Amino acid sequence: MLAQLGAPSPTVTEQLPLPPPDLKPWVSNFTYPGAQDFSQLALDPSRNQLIVGARNYLFRLSLANVSLLQATEWASNEDTRRSCQSKGKTEEECQNYVRVLIVTGRKVFMCGTNAFSPVCSSRQVGNLSRTVEKINGVARCPYDPRHNSTAVISSQGELYAATVIDFSGRDPAIYRSLGSRPPLRTAQYNSKWLNEPNFVAAYDIGLFAYFFLRENAVEHDCGRTVYSRVARVCKNDVGGRFLLEDTWTTFMKARLNCSRPGEVPFYYNELQSAFHLPEQDLIYGVFTTNVNSIAASAVCAFNLSAISQAFNGPFRYQENPRAAWLPIANPIPNFQCGTLPEVGPNENLTERSLQDAQRLFLMSEAVQPVTPEPCVTQDSVRFSHLVVDLVQAKDTLYHVLYIGTESGTILKALSTTSRSLRGCYLEELHVLPPGRREPLRSLRIVHSARALFVGLSDGVLRVPLERCAAYRSQGACLGARDPYCGWDGKQQRCSTLEDSSNMSLWTQNITACPVRNVTRDGGFGPWSPWQPCEHLDGDNSGSCLCRSRACDSPRPRCGGLDCLGPAVHIANCSRNGAWTPWSSWALCSTSCGIGFQVRQRSCSNPAPRHGGRICVGKSREERFCNENTPCPVPIFWASWGSWSKCSSNCGGGVQSRRRTCENGNSCPGCGVEFKTCNPEACPEVRRNTPWTPWLPVNVTQGGARQEQRFRFTCRAPLPDPHGLQFGRRRMETRTCPADGSGACDTDALVEDLLRSGGASPLMVSGGWAAWGPWSSCSRDCELGFRFRKRTCTNPEPRNGGLPCVGDAAEYQDCNPHACPVRGAWSCWTAWSPCSASCGGGHYQRTRSCTSPAPSPGEDICLGLHTEEALCATQACPEGWSPWSEWSACTEDGVQSRDRHCEELVPGPSACAGNSSQSRPCPYSEIPVILPASSVDEATSCGGFSLIHLVATGISCFLGSGLLTLAVYLSCQHCQHQSQESTLVHPATPNHLHYKGGGTPKNEKYTPMEFKTLNKNNLIPDDRANFYPLQQTNVYTTTYYPSPLNKHSFRPEASPGQRLHNLGS
């Protein structure tokens, strides 16, 4: 968006130019993910590129459209950031903010804050990722990114930097480094030289380096005020000898005067930006009022000759802190950095006296601007940046000012000596999106490219200086009063002077500010911040949030329409909550016995909002129901009976048990339960088949023969018949002589073979055919068997040939893995006793997933494992205490319980009913009555009579007496040995109890009871090495055990140590 302004008045408040062309199509934009603070822009027109320094990044952009040529990350390392944060700085501060960026030859010199650890480097101008040199950034770059600083590199390669050079920001300095000359700085911690300065700009001009700044005025006696200054130093300064060593000897500073003239001038004291126009030897500066004053801004221009005149004038000097600042004549009125002709210690020193240099540096006269009045002024706005362009119009040369504001706009104005054009604003460039307001970070101009480059917090913009083609008519072109544009009569278009076809037909009309008496419709400005406000709604009131906007962007003029739309926006009004009607009562929670019903309401009629009161009262009500509908007697299972005998003694059998349904025959669940038993394998049983008949296998020519018979051994782990397997085959052979002398029984087949003699046909012995396929396994799991068969048909035995040798069937184990088990519920347990005898209780029953339990990886049981139901829903009689627990079952199979009346004086309806109850015992709790003979027999075997008790007491008494006597005799024996030993006593007396030489030797030691030390007393518990110590009158010194173990014993140890090692 763009708005043009203009009038002869020096302010812009009422200047309303023609409707401007739209700025958006003309602007080129550059952003980069993660990059912020695009505050340093360095121009390199010879290579058609713009060098940009942002937070943690460096960029090379095209001057034509700010397209990206190269991006290089330049961030602080993790250790530096961590060290910065440990010093109390935030994560936002502990980044690398570029604060110095200067193109010099084929290199780019840059400095960054580097997380409060400044660093500088030189890089190739065509490849920012390649570092040529890296140096310390202290005194060249500030620690804190919020500190203002400036720097310039002279033609001799010397860096002049104006910044703070310590972590706390309390040591400002103008510092020279690099180059061939020695480093110099301003006097340290001397507020008369620099008093909390904010450095704005630095320039290398002739023999001097100039610095523009603002600082607290030391010469101002009435309170604190800020003055704008220009300071300079000689570039050939080498410092002093013995005085002002490593310190400037040519430092001087003078005040810059930018004010509105009058009987009482109005001063713009704070310099914000400066721009050097070398073609005109001019310095333009942007000045504002103090921060806590009314916002106002101005632009003033200063000649270099006026600056030199101020430095050639008298100084202002203060003799002592209590004296006034008085003018003093300048010892060298036209000082031009001359040096002394001497050779020796003072060689190369400037002609200024070191004493004068130390005390005379503040000039008495201020630098006056080119014109008495500022070039441009603006009330209620603070300027922040300034660049100037020289534009050759048809009749004269114009200075076009581009002024950045703290709200993010750029004002385009003329600087001229003509009173009719003084303070003319040509247009206001809105480079930020609508509704966004923030100060510009930097502003640079490229005269050759006719472009303006704007640094923002999140990117860089390129704005062309002229947009003549946007004016479609001659009236709009000439009425804009833009020095860049004129009307080309031949081509009938608005163009620049360079683009005109014929200068004689190219016209301009810059005789006054842009016209303002044009009809313009009003437009709303931005919304104000949200503020609390009150609203009334009948008898109720509440708070809301309100915001408004004014119809001033622009205001309607000359019959223009007012703004369309609301000027006030109200939101988030508070509202008190109210209840909805009660819902209907829900169904009773039980079908019999005491239950409850519920009804509800909600605080949503309306719901409280934005701080309104919530509803008071309950959102839920309950009441009893079915009080007079008792539940039928519960039907439940009796306790399980005992398990039956296992159906098999081995190989896995089944046991069962039963239960009965009490109070009916419709109990849910199973009345019979089974479980496996005797899972161990049965022993293997072997059985032999009967012998087969004898069969001839070999008949000789003489009539002798051999016969064979067979039988088979069968084995199986009984009683499972499916596990039966054939065993090995046994074979017997006998020889029958031809004469029949041997006993050899034969059957008819054998006799026939013998009778046939040698005339029998050729004998053919049998051969096995191939094995048939395996049969299917007899079981799917838990070890089955399969078999295959073959026949003796390859060939069949003929004419007395031998039968096939071997088994006709073969068996093999299969499917040995366990059968998968899917989980199944067991039967429900019996209902538990009611939790209350009256007034409503509950009982429950459970079941488990164990019939059978699922094997790993198989399905688990689905459904509930616990059920509950109400019981004892009848009202409790008044006055009775709760029933006691049921007593144990008597021999008659009856249990009882009782209660008592708690009323002292029971009324007619109190304590009604019985005070005791009885019931048959459950089946599982009925005591077993054994026959009398069995009871007597058990008593006679396991009883403990009075005779046994007396005999036991007498035996214990006699045993303890004998044990005491043995201990006593043993102690006497050990005492006799200890009195004869000399190793038990230490060589020196106990110093704690020694009373002098008159005490007997045995009284020099304090008796102490020895106790065996275990692992809790620093000595390892090794009971194999314990030696028993008798509790006798052993005398020793008080001993503090050291951490010794059984391996620490040394023969040369003291007796006390040796004794304790024995105890360890």
Q: Which percent bin holds the helix content?
A: under 10%
Task: Note the main sheet.
Answer: 5 strands, antiparallel
Q: Which architecture of the domain at 35-374 does the CATH hierarchy give at level 2?
A: 7 Propeller
N-end to C-end Cα span: 98 Å
Protein name: Semaphorin 5B
Subcellular location: Membrane
Keywords: Developmental protein, Differentiation, Disulfide bond, Glycoprotein, Membrane, Neurogenesis, Repeat, Transmembrane, Transmembrane helix
InterPro entries: Plexin_repeat, PSI, Sema5A/B-like_TSP-1, Semap_dom, Semap_dom_sf, Semaphorin, TSP1_rpt, TSP1_rpt_sf
Produce a short descriptive summary:
This protein is mainly β and 1064 residues long.
Note the topology.
Blueprint: E1 2-3, E2 28-30, E3 40-44, E4 49-54, E5 57-62, E6 68-73, H1 78-86, E7 98-104, E8 107-112, E9 119-124, E10 127-136, E11 150-153, E12 159-164, E13 172-177, E14 198-205, E15 208-216, E16 226-234, E17 252-255, E18 259-260, E19 266-267, E20 270-277, E21 282-288, E22 296-303, H2 304-312, E23 315-318, E24 325-328, H3 354-359, E25 376-379, E26 383-392, E27 397-405, E28 409-415, E29 425-430, E30 442-446, E31 451-455, E32 460-464, H4 474-479, E33 486-488, E34 493-495, E35 506-507, E36 531-537, E37 540-548, E38 568-571, E39 595-600, E40 620-625, E41 636-637, E42 653-658, E43 661-662, E44 672-677, E45 684-688, E46 695-699, E47 705-717, E48 725-736, H5 748-756, E49 784-789, E50 809-814, E51 841-846, E52 866-871, E53 894-898, E54 916-920, H6 932-942, H7 946-980, H8 1055-1063
Antiparallel strand pairs: 1-29, 2-32, 3-4, 4-5, 5-6, 7-8, 8-9, 9-10, 11-12, 12-13, 14-15, 15-16, 16-17, 18-19, 20-21, 21-22, 22-25, 23-24, 26-27, 27-28, 28-29, 30-31, 31-32, 33-34, 33-35, 36-37, 37-38, 39-40, 41-43, 42-44, 45-47, 46-47, 47-48, 49-50, 51-52, 53-54
